From TrEMBL:
Top-rank taxon, per record: Eukaryota
Keywords tagged on the record: Chaperone
Annotated family: Belongs to the UreD family.
Stated name of the protein: Urease accessory protein D
InterPro entries listed in its UniProt record: UreD
Length: 297
């Protein structure tokens, strides 16, 4: 992949610390390794990904590789939402990420959401290869677009594929989200009042405590949210329920051998509510990363 890629990052353990030993990028991708993000006492490196011009245009095909060596900790993030601009003809904007995570290593992949503008076409594929004691945090989410100016789920096509493999090619988690305008029903109609959909994945031994806590929190949150006291449910003149839809819905389930992974799926009516959820539930990673994920967003 490296020969025709737009970016490539290698993190290795040098003198007892996680260190970026290679960071290469070319147009339209830019990779930045800031000197300081969090506490200097933490063994973690941060990489920011952004595109020249602040977005992706029709026909762009961006590929990036990440290699996190044994015993290393790396954070891969963005500086703002990934904007996908208007497509021309049948062209589709594409992004491919391939990452390998070594033994006792941790990769935290926490981008801001994708935002597709009117008529945009966008496809992304993210491939992660782990070993049994690797750990991975993955956040993948999309907002409806510039809904304040009327672009609510107004793009033509969106596809996000996440494939996670153990020890090379053993499938651990294979998932695709596809949103496409149909002749009978639009994306906006199918999504109703929800403006954000998100998926959070936590895999590996370094995240066991976070996994346990988030499963308990989501279960309690949804139990409280969906609890309806006797007699509180109203009905309209046709006898159907008039209860309002929850502004934030989350589900949580384990997957893989011995429940090695946990996936949380979210639908929300505001982007800020998802940021709040991520900040709260990933805050315990501060000790490993030197800073709270999504802090200041």
């Amino acid at each position: 992949m490296e020969s025709n890629t737009n970016g490539y990052v290698v993190v290795e353990r040098i003198r007892g610390k996680s260190t970026i030993t290679r960071c290469f990028s070319k147009y339209p991708l830019k990779l930045i390794n800031p000197n300081k993000v969090g506490s200097s006492t933490n063994d973690a490196v941060w990489i920011y990904s952004l595109t020249y011009g602040g977005g992706i245009v029709s026909g762009d095909a961006i590929s990036c590789g990440v290699k996190v060596g044994d015993g290393c900790t790396a954070v891969f993030t963005t500086q703002s939402s990934t904007k996908v601009y208007k497509s021309v003809g049948s062209k589709c904007s594409e992004q491919l990420l391939e990452a390998s995570i070594g033994s006792k290593a941790l990769l935290v992949f926490i981008p801001d959401p994708v935002t597709c503008f009117s008529t945009a076409k966008y496809s992304q594929k993210q491939i992660f290869r782990l070993v049994p004691d690797s750990s991975l945090v993955l956040v993948d989410w999309i907002t409806c677009g510039r809904h304040a100016s009327g672009e609510k789920w107004d793009f033509a096509f969106y596809k996000s594929t996440n494939n996670i493999f153990l020890e090379g090619y053993q499938p651990l988690f294979l998932d695709t989200v596809l949103l496409e305008q149909g002749s009978i029903s639009t994306i906006a109609r199918r999504m109703q009042d929800y403006l954000v959909i998100a998926m959070v994945i936590l895999i590996g031994p370094q995240l066991k405590q976070v996994q346990n806590q988030i499963q308990m929190d989501v279960k309690k949150m949804m139990s409280d949210l969906l609890y309806i006291p006797s007699g509180a449910l109203g009905y309209n003149s046709r006898g159907s329920s008039s209860q309002c839809k929850p502004a934030f819905i989350a589900s949580c389930s384990a997957f893989g051998p011995k429940g090695i992974g946990v996936v949380i799926r979210i639908s929300a009516m505001t982007t800020e509510s998802v940021y709040q959820f991520l900040r709260r539930h990933l805050s315990s990673l501060e000790m490993q990363l030197g800073a709270v994920p999504y802090h200041g967003r």
